[in-house]
Amino acid sequence: MITAALLALAAAPLLAQDIRTDVDPAAALKGLRGPAALSQHNEAPTMTQLEDGAERRVRNYPEQPPTIPHDIDGYQVDLNANKCLSCHARTRTGESGAPMVSVTHFMDRDGQFLAAVSPRRYFCTQCHVPQHRVAEEVGNSFVDIDSLIAPRADRQ
What we know:
CATH class of one domain: Mainly Alpha
Distance between the termini: 12 Å
Mean pLDDT: 79
GO molecular function: metal ion binding
Radius of gyration: 21 Å
Order of helices and strands: HHHHH
Largest sheet: none
Oligomer: single chain
Subunit structure: Component of the periplasmic nitrate reductase NapAB complex composed of NapA and NapB.
Family: Belongs to the NapB family.
Strand content: under 5%
Number of helices: 5
Number of strands: 0
CATH superfamily of one domain: Flavocytochrome C3, Chain A
Subcellular location: Periplasm
CATH architecture of one domain: Orthogonal Bundle
Protein name: Periplasmic nitrate reductase, electron transfer subunit
Structural class: mainly alpha
């Protein structure tokens, strides 16, 4: 049912009111560098503030990796050490209060459970990222799957 709803949405034609004609193309392409030419050197933008909170963000689709709700600057995550596991390892969550690493991180590629975090799931920032408080550079009209199928479920 979900697949059919997504296919119908993807196949829907682009409506005339969805096309923006009020945007100056040059302004739309300025990006993070601002209006400066590529040959000019700009000052780097100021660093933005991290979203630093204990609440968990809502996930928009199944299997979406959760975001990191705290600063991780200076965390060592390499072949020698993984700072994330000092709080999120199964044996450390009682004292740290942090959520445990998902059980999926203990599975190898054949679906067999391991005693420790799988090497393919060891580098946390491949999937998990901290969030910064920033203004959107580009508008976002993302609609999560639950919102898409909710009206259809009510009709059935």
